[in-house]
């Protein structure tokens, strides 16, 4: 799917976005123009939002913040925008993707998600064997997930509920993975 900011709901004094257009001749994006951007967020505003320090220490508030300023959709209420998004914001593999192996070097496909999730490492106090077991379990689920997504006859309109059902796991297990 695509990720585009479809509308910054905050005033510029709250969030300031700096970006530049790049088209490197040395990076993996040779020839492809792309945007690098950084958002500076006013600390006072973050405090009103319930964030009084580093975002990493306020996971729930951070998810709300991300949801407030970011969205992705192929149904934006503008036919022209939908068309542009469909044409330029969906990855289609090319020969270049698998230049160095069997997997797409740009990391596609991405796993679908209907909500914002923050990835975090396993708890440090978790037993090593338990960690290995968890990793093995997650690897199995992810392999199956990518197998479905990479299948040539994958239904691109498949709902996330159907996708998770194909994995034969619960929604909670999917997001936990
Ligand atoms: Zn690719």
Spatial order of strands in the largest sheet:
1-2
* Overall spatial form: globular
Tally of structural domains: 2
**Strand-pairing-aware structural class:** alpha+beta
The total strand number stands at: 2
Mean pLDDT: 82
| Radius of gyration from CA coordinates | 19 Å
* SS field, number of helical segments: 6
Order of helices and strands: EEHHHHHH
Proportion of strand residues: 5-15%
In percent, how helical is the residue content?
A: 25-40%
Main beta sheet strand tally, sense and closure: 2 strands, antiparallel
| C-alpha end-to-end distance | 19 Å
List the uncertain runs: 1-10
Bound molecules: zinc ion
Draw up the topology in text.
Layout: E1 15-22, E2 34-41, H1 43-48, H2 59-69, H3 79-88, H4 128-150, H5 160-166, H6 171-176
Antiparallel strand pairs: 1-2
Zinc ion (ZN) is lined by residues 91, 93, 97, 104, 106, 108.
Question: Please, could you describe this protein's structure?
Answer:
A two-stranded antiparallel sheet has the order 1-2. The protein starts with 14 loop residues before the first strand and ends with a helix. By secondary structure, it is an alpha+beta fold. 36% of the residues lie in helices and 9% in strands. The structure holds zinc ion (ZN). The site of zinc ion has 6 residues, from loops.
């Amino acid at each position: 799917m695509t990720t585009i900011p479809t509308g910054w709901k905050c005033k510029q004094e709250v969030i300031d976005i700096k970006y530049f257009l790049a088209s490197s001749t040395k990076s993996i994006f040779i020839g492809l123009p792309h945007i690098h951007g950084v958002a500076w967020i006013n600390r006072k505003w973050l405090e009103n939002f319930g964030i009084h320090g580093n975002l990493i220490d306020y996971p729930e508030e951070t998810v709300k913040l991300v949801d407030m300023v970011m969205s992705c959709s192929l149904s934006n209420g503008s036919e022209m925008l939908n068309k542009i998004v469909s044409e330029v914001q969906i990855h289609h593999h090319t020969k270049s993707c698998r230049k160095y192996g069997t997997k797409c070097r740009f990391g596609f496909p991405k796993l679908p998600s209907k909500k914002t999730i923050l990835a975090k490492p396993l708890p440090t106090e978790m037993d090593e064997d338990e960690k290995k077991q968890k990793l093995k379990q997650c690897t199995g689920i992810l392999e199956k997930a990518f197998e479905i997504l990479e299948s040539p006859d994958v239904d691109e309109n498949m709902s996330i509920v159907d996708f998770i059902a194909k994995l034969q796991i619960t929604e909670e297990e999917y997001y936990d993975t």
